[in-house]
Each structure stands twice: as C-alpha cells, then as structure tokens.
Amino acid sequence: MRRTTPGVTTALLLALTACAPAMVPNTFTELDAAEQRRICAATPHVGEAGRLDYGAGSTEGTGEGSVSPDYRLECPDLGLRVDGQALTVTAASLDAALAVFNGSAFFLHYYADLRVRVADGRVDADDPMTVPESLRDLVTPIVVTVTPLGGPARTLLSGGRVTPVTLEPGTIYRVDTRTRGTPNPWPSVTIDPLSGTIQATIGR
C-alpha cells in the first residue's frame, strides 16, 4: 500500500494537476472565526461550480445560505478551498470527501445524470448507451481517462464504451473528462484515497 506524508501528498497532487487550465480570478470571501464555526455546524456542501452551500437543504443544493468562490473553510473534520478554478476538499476519508458534493454540483458527471464512479483502487462509469438513441451522438465523442501517479493514462470511456480501471489500493490518480459541445462541470479531478483529499478543476 502506497503511503505519503502530507507534504509529499501536496506535491504529488500538484504534479498530477499541472495540466489544468489557467486559473480565473474570483472575489475572495473572507470568513471570520464566527462565520467559520457557524457554517461548519450547518452541514456544509459543495454545490454548482464550487459554490459553498450550508444549512437545511444543503445536500440538495438549496441550502439556507451559500458562499460563492473564492473561499476557504476549515472545520474540525473538513477543509474546503476554492482558488480560481481549483477546488480542494480534505476529509477524514475518500468517502467523506465525496459525500461533500451535493446534487447541484454534478460532481464527476460526464453527461446529464451519467457519471464516473471513483473508489480506492477502482474507477468505473455509468453505461452511456443507456441514453435514448437520439442522444447517443452527443455521448459517443466523450472521452474519460484515468492517470495513476507515475503511470500512463488509461481509457475509462471512449466511443460509448466503458472499460473499468483497476489500480493498486492507495494509488493517487487523476480523472480527465473531455467533452465535445456538452457541459463538462469537472474536467479534471485528482483523487488521493489515503488522505481523503480531492483536487478538482471547476469547469467554467
């Protein structure tokens, strides 16, 4: 099993995300200590385009409050940061980090409700051929690759066919999604299963 120290993990994640598009500046929202505590106690989630949702309804993307990017939130068991197009989530586990994204985020969706499904050691995707035949011309150009740290890219989805990717447990990997004329909310996502860290590029 591959293990890394926090400093090494950060360096490795930066290496994997080096090909991300240039950052787009946003207005930074400074959350003071009281606001941080209030939001941390109100079930924070990541919503559409990296928006911070919190309060009742935050799991569905209709929370009582929200903070637009850029922002930084530090809770005892969760860290969220958006800087330009870069989102970082740190949690106690990979499952906890994935659970931070609400429905409005469409996290790792490659077309409508079809999405890439990530886990420690395995990456899979919903079958694109479940869409109506009239929409298949929109799905077949989509390509999704999985690149493990230090290894070559592997094709997960291409030409409407899914080939699940198996990795050594604990491997850091990047999921890249390329679409043609359809929305691409998260074009590049780097997963560190052991540290519970997700770094993602927000589609604009």
The number of distinct helices, counting runs of at least 4 residues, comes to 4
Order of helices and strands: HHEEEEEEHEEEHEEEEEEE
Can you summarize the main beta sheet? 9 strands, antiparallel
SSE-based structural type: alpha+beta
**Strand neighbour order, sheet with most strands:** 4-5-6-16-15-14-10-11-12
| Cα distance spanning the termini | 36 Å
Question: Which band does the percent of strand residues land in?
Answer: 25-35%
Percent helix among the residues?
A: 10-25%
- Uncertain regions: pLDDT < 50 for 5+ in a row? 1-24
Determine Rg (CA atoms, Å). 17 Å
- Find the count of extended strands (DSSP E, 2+ residues): 16
Shape: globular
Mean pLDDT: 89
Fill in the keyword field for this structure:
204 residues; alpha+beta; nine-stranded antiparallel sheet; four-stranded antiparallel sheet; 4 helices; 16 strands; disordered N terminus
Write the layout of secondary structure elements.
Layout: H1 6-16, H2 33-40, E1 45-46, E2 52-54, E3 65-67, E4 71-75, E5 78-83, E6 86-91, H3 94-98, E7 109-111, E8 114-119, E9 122-125, H4 136-139, E10 143-148, E11 154-158, E12 161-162, E13 165-166, E14 173-178, E15 188-192, E16 197-201
